[in-house]
Amino acid sequence: MLVSSLNLENVRCIKKASIFLGERVNLFLGENGSGKSSLLESIHILATGKSFRTSKIDGVKNFDSDSFTISSIINRNGFEKVIGYRKDKSNIDIRINSINVSKLSELVLNFSLITFHSSSVFIIEGEPQYRRRYIDWWLFHSNTSFYPEWLRYQKLLKQRNAALRQSKSFLHVWDEALAESGEIINSLRQSALQMLMVEVCNVIDESDFQSLSGFSWQYNSGWPKDETFLSALKRNQQRDILYGFTSVGVHRGDLRFTFKGKDAKEYLSRGQQKTLSLIMLIALGSIHKKVLNETPIFLIDDVSSELDTTHRYKLIEKIVNFGGQLILTSIDANDLRFSMSSPVNKFVLQKGDVHVV
User: Which residues are CB-contacts of 82 (< 8 A; sequence separation ≥ 6)?
Assistant: First the structure.
């Protein structure tokens, strides 16, 4: 898939910009604060409806403006689409080929995008939600039954939590329905993880990262492995009533990484954790290409500040060799190296202005 063009208006320090992107490597250069990360953030917003830099989407607009607009022409599976996203003080307007859409899932389905940025290390060191999102990203793209089941589970979870506080006599109804849905999601996640973690190990081996040898993982479903989800719900029912929320389930699932028997968060250095987080994202791209016959777009923000030289060269080379579109930022072009025949499209940002090199 490709992003052919990108148009921005009032996005952070970028007042207005129109950019045509190449099919392979696109490198945006600039000092800190020049707006280069805002370009990647804009593509991420178009693909997900969310920013990777802030939880408050209003923070994306320029200080002097009440709104911001992002639009792009994308090409996926031979079909071209125009995607637009506009946010003002009170409304969000999302359009696909000039047709308004109301659900973020309708937006996400148009993109296959993998983003690496400063917070990507949360896959390793952050809260369990980051690791659940990692698994669920692949399931969303690879299994059409996952997202409807995930929505069903979220609705049932909300209803059970309400029953815990108000209608306890109906708990058995919600327990059975939630347990059924949770077991389905758990089974899908376990199957996906087997595939993903094998690919993570392959990338580690192929890249010859000796410092990451001894990698292993454990998945926690969100309830004890020696009982069913329904049994766990019933066993914890009184505690759940006391606190007013469901304490077990796939919404509490987690993926634990270990190295040589020790917790990755305790054993690995900060740099190693960043390296592993990028390896995990590369594994997503690799699986996506092998199974779905499509290379996702990679966005990599300021990789030179996140990884040391040796690891940076190896992993960027791995992504380039996938043959898809790569869009990345850096302060200095000398921090990166590309051993490929096709040209690198270079852009320089200066105080929000984009210039083609």
Answer: 71, 72, 73, 95, 96, 97, 98
List, in order, residues 6 or more apart from 41 with CB less than 8 Å away.
Answer: 11, 12, 51, 52, 53, 60
Comma-separated ranges of CATH 1.20.1050.90 domains in the chain: 122-293
Domain with CATH 3.40.50.300 in the chain: 1-112+296-357
Distance of CA 45 to the CA centre of its chain: 11
CATH code matching the domain that covers 122-293, chosen among 2.30.30.110, 1.20.1050.90, 3.50.30.30, 3.90.70.10: 1.20.1050.90
Per-residue pLDDT tens digits for 257-288 = 999 889 999 999 888 999 999 999 999 999 99
| pLDDT less than 70: residues of the chain | 306, 339-342
What are 46's two structure tokens?
């178009």
Judge residue 121's burial from the number of C-beta atoms within 10 Å of its C-beta, 0-12 exposed, 13-18 middle, 19 or more buried. Answer: buried
Which residues face 19 on adjacent strands?
Answer: 6
Around Cβ 270, how many Cβ atoms within 10 Å? 11
Contact assessment for residue 75 and residue 87, using Cβ atoms and an 8 Å cutoff: no
Q: Please give the structure tokens belonging to residue 276.
A: 């592993």
Looking at the domain that runs over 1-112+296-357, which CATH code has it been given?
3.40.50.300
Nearest to 40 by CA among 321, 288, 279, 326: 326
Strand 79-87 versus strand 353-356 pairing type: unpaired
Sign of CA dihedral 125, 126, 132, 137: negative
Q: Work out whether strand 25-29 and strand 68-76 pair parallel, antiparallel, or are unpaired.
A: unpaired
Answer whether 0.85 is exceeded by the pTM: yes
Q: What is the pLDDT of residue 207?
A: 82
Terminal CA-to-CA distance of the chain, rounded, Å? 24
Strands 2-11 and 68-76: antiparallel
**Contact call for residues 6 and 42 (beta carbons, < 8 A):** yes
* Rg value, the chain, Cα: 22
**In whole angstroms, what is the distance from residue 94 CA to residue 131 CA?**
28
